[in-house]
Amino acid sequence: MRFGRGRDNAVVSADGNEGTRLTRRRILAWAGGVGLAALAPRCGDGNGVGGGGATRQSTATAGATTVDCVLTPELTEGPFYLDLALVRRDIREDRPGTPLELAVTVVDADSCEPIEAAAVDVWHCDAAGEYSGVEGGSGTFLRGIQMTDAAGAAEFRTIYPGWYPGRAVHIHLKVHLRGREAHTGQLFFEEGTTAVVYEAEPYSDRPGADVSNDDDGIFGETGGVTLVAVALGEPLRGSVTLGVRRRDGR
């Protein structure tokens, strides 16, 4: 599937998949408004900028703050979970959208130590707000599983998620430790970042999300600790840290 050109006539390819590019003009305009967000610090770092999973911050966008290791709140898995054995990094398949490299770091909520060999399972809707494999649909796009490395990190190549009525922009995920479910949650995005991404096709073919983070009841349960820090570029790079508890005590 080939994508149409955006309003800036910009289309690029990423590892064989074409996607809509954020132009230099858009990036500079966004940076001038709210500042570029750095990747979220890992547990134990002294200063942090942007959103972060197991980091506590006084603002969601900027500022040096003291970082604490916190337990990431458990959330509903959502209605569109499929238990699939999709161990793969690139989950885009044929979905058009702005490429996003997403890094999810899993740490022990008690010790702040990274957890190796955790299975991180993510799924989200495409730019049009559709999920694969549900409500009569087929396919496995935008679903995948990765194992964390020695640093506790699992990385996915995806696209920036779209939205559907009644919810803020989000990504679903589960974390499994030793074959047992340890965490169910959702990741969210800064609305300023979403606004910039949604200027480009195919997102611009629809109006913006009808629910903000603050008006989303599930986001309210997170305390803001599952905001993904996004560094603008080609591709976008997102990072979040999740503090989970080893339920078997090991």
How would you describe what is shown here?
The structure is a single chain. The chain is mostly beta strands and 250 residues long. The protein has 3 helices and 10 strands, in the order E-E-H-E-E-E-E-E-E-H-H-E-E. Helix content is 9%, strand content 27%. Strands 5-4-7-8-9-10-3-6 form an 8-stranded mixed beta sheet. Strands 1-2 form a two-stranded antiparallel sheet. The longest helix has 11 residues, at 24-34. The chain starts with 10 loop residues before the first strand and ends in a 6-residue tail after the last strand.
List strands and helices in order, with pairings.
Elements: E1 11-14, E2 17-20, H1 24-34, E3 99-108, E4 119-123, E5 143-147, E6 153-159, E7 170-177, E8 180-189, H2 191-197, H3 217-220, E9 227-231, E10 236-244
Parallel strand pairs: 3-10, 8-9
Antiparallel strand pairs: 1-2, 3-6, 4-5, 4-7, 7-8, 9-10
